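Same chain as my last thread, 335 residues:
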Amino acid sequence: MSVSDIGIDLGTASILIYVRGKGIVLKEPSVVAFDRDANKIKAIGEEARMMLNRSTGNIVAIRPLKNGIISDYAVTEQMLKYFIQKASGKLSFKKPRIAINLPGMVTEVERKAIEDAAYQAGAREVTLVPEAIAAAIGANIDISRPCGKMIVDIGAGVCNVAILSMDGVVVDTAVKTAGDEFDNAIIHYARSAHNLIIGERTAEDIKIHIGTVIRRAQQKLMEVKGRDLTTGLPKTVRIGSEEIREALKDPVAQILEAVHSVLEKTPPELAADIMERGIVLTGGASLLDGMEELIEEKTGINTVTAENPIAAVAVGVGRYLEVTAADARQLLQRT
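reply #2:
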């Protein structure tokens, strides 16, 4: 993998770029600020995120990716081009080879859209890597051997669950329930239980600081500021972690159902491997307090979180290019 080869985790909430020898060189929100009057992009990434839910008039902050899928092709192309140039450096003249993660639920049309966007953004060659495989590689899981490994990747827009063996996916499923749905559930709860209107960034702060999926002996409390639904005036309420556990019950139940459905379809020999080797969690939303413990409790299988779950997919797609390049060199040496 040369310096012009990069791995991209094209996430609903964040874009991560990996370069060999440097690791993760870029991590920014996948948000674009768009000027509707001028019909042009105003800002991309962190600068645009600051405008999310705070933009006024003709400036709107948008996410061109939804549930890991391109919802706005033209904006995604410009966003990719910006991040690739930022990661490659101004002095890079050679077009890079790019590997990009591919969520488990994409259609052929959506797959082609991701590929085309990467080419239009400046790639000379594009490799699409199934997200579960990328997550496993990034979590340092050896999937080349004929034994089962289970990965549960919980990102912002999609939760991918898969059984892997011999460098391939044996059984998998994907649900559009992940970090964003956790935030939406918190927003809905604040509105219904406290008559409080809050935005996405506030909901995410609540999730990070007091969010949990299991009952704890000691409850965490947090003061939350928003707008009163009735009066329209600013309002502050105190919300507890037990309330957030209740708020997250439905989306968490959907993830547990996805895990169960994959285990039910797993061949007996590989199921025995999973019982022995356990389940590995990746993705930013896997860091939600208690997720490990809850999945282990509901499945009876030892569950651990990868060392760096947020970066696992980006590292995995980057390493995938290294592995395929090494295989190609070995093949050439044999011929």
